[in-house]
Amino acid sequence: MTDLSQIVKAYDVRGVVPDQWDETLAELFGAAFVEVTGADAIVIGHDMRPSSPGLSHAFGRGAAARGADVTEIGLCSTDELYYASGALGLPGAMFTASHNPAQYNGIKMCRAGAAPVGQDTGLADIRALVERWTAEGAPEPAAAPGTVTRRDVLKDYAAHLRSLVDLTGIRPLKVVVDAGNGMGGHTVPTVFEGLPLELDALYFELDGSFPHHEANPLDPKNIVDLQARVREVGADLGLAFDGDADRCFVVDENGDPVSPSAITALVAARELAKHPGGTVIHNCITSWSVPEVVKEHGGTPVRTRVGHSFIKQEMARTGAIFGGEHSAHYYFREFWNADTGMLAALHVLAALGGQPGPLSQLVDRYDRYAASGEINSTVDDQAGRLAAIKAAYESRDGITLDDLDGLTVTAPDWWFNVRPSNTEPLLRLNVEARDAATVARVRDDALAIIRG
User: Alpha-D-phosphohexomutase alpha/beta/alpha domain: which residues (predicted)?
Assistant: First the structure.
């Protein structure tokens, strides 16, 4: 029997196919999903991985056997699946392993309206059912099995995104897009169609073996080709999407990366212009510039833990209009509180194309501090190292500590956060300060304790 603890994570199912899971298990997951959500209809989509069509069809068979009508939207990005869940009012399942290597696959599940399914919101119950059925035999089929139909929602998804951003007055722009052989190659041409954009397409061929580079733009080595191409063709900006195209990373006209915190601040300012006085969510390791910009534009910033389940929970609780993370996940109230990098990309295009200056100049007002980026350290005792950091800093003058997520240490001119990884023996350090020299000093002081 497969050990489901190895593949059922905090927010999704993910593992190696067929070693850790296969179509037989996918069928049981489909049946359990219907059982736990009580759905009489669901929607399913999948990415370009070789194993994705078979797994998604199997999930659909399991769901239909339990009496649910299944709408298959086929090849799609994760945010396109969220669109279908929201627009159709149906629970959904997306087959993808995002930026993981080719042998992996997974399932991201949501309730109707793209509400997330995680350990505390149904995933643990789904796992328990699959384990029981694996041990005791699959359940009897429903008296009346559901139907399976196909539906293409790509144009509807694109039209919905375009309805949320005013792109009518933008000047012509040259944009390089690196899809990383992922689902951006499928969605970008339709979403950008008819806009005054000269599109330079990198790696748009759908290929789940990722022949050019990993589809994870947060790793600097994976945007090298994009940076070079932007400089080579004199583009106004570059966009990089991850494998399932729900995250978007931006580089300016010089090929320099634009911090996701700066993008969060830029989009927040635009959303606050549409929704004055709104609340904006940001996680505890986004830049100081994010809450500053939100307040300057009359909004209320709310700080939360890292991770989409916490962001979405706070968005629902506060009625927030927008949320952003350092990992280039961007969440919109007008998109059922779900994350969509494509909508963030349209905001960047609208902001850049609505004024004459270059992107580097535009984002300067939102990128106010120096930062270290995330630095990982392997440690034997995460709790012990965190306690050592707390002991080292808590008695210093002018220092405040909080443990919202890991440990955040704040001084008048700098802050750093140290968080334990949930899956590896790592501590993750992020430092920000008013200048690079201070970042280096604070970083080295903190690392000496973490690695001491």
Answer: 6-133, 156-255, 263-369
